[in-house]
Design goal:
By secondary structure, the chain is of the alpha/beta class. About 35% of the residues lie in helices and about 15% in strands. The radius of gyration is 17 Å and the shape is globular.
Length: about 250
Amino acid sequence: MDGWDTMETTHPKTILICLPYAGAGANCFTPLRSHLPEGLQMVEATLPGRGQRYAEPLLKNADDMAADIWKQVSPLLYRPYALLGHSMGGLLAYLLCHKISQAGLPPPVHLFLSGREAPSVPPKEPLEYLLPYQAFKEQLEGYGGIAPEIVQDEDTFAFFEPMIRADFEAVGTWQYHPRPKLDIPVTVLWGTEEDLTEQEARAWQQEFSAEARFEVFEGGHFFIFEQAKAFCSNLKMRIGEKRPLQQRDKYL
């Protein structure tokens, strides 16, 4: 299936569809694979301009990104599935859920939104994608929103820089407007050391009629990889629940 990378299991009970963070290449969720429970099939989205889709033009609009993912994922939605969106992927997962709802297709058994403020929260640096090369690189190094292995090596950063800019433009120029509330079990997660406040995370609740669960993990923006074992244990537990309770758990 073009644009997607899968982890096969003999008899998968649930598909875990993963939507990437800004600047992510193909297979960016690989560190989670060895910690996933048996019976869960990981499917990773690959946006144009990366992985097997490297020759395709980069997208610079979040709605276009969500539409691209929708075209590929819709055939999968007749099986039990969960959605995981990290950082930019959280916004894309939110937009995808609205497309799923509008199409009348089955909703995810659970939605995981990690490292992403609610869509109603204005972006802190909406125009940072316009910064000159060196200033853009230093900005990314400063707040830790991009994988360290990308920004710390000059050649690697030069390769990924157009992709990162396109992703930041997509997020920075996206305009929020109120939409119908989603009736989906949802967990919002963030790291103790990242540039995301609890208030910004809790603002996700206004997008859902179901009660959200809010959880914080030790670590920075990439806590899902730093705490991969605990994070995947959380996925397994939440996917097995019918409805999450509204509370805040700590994995410290």
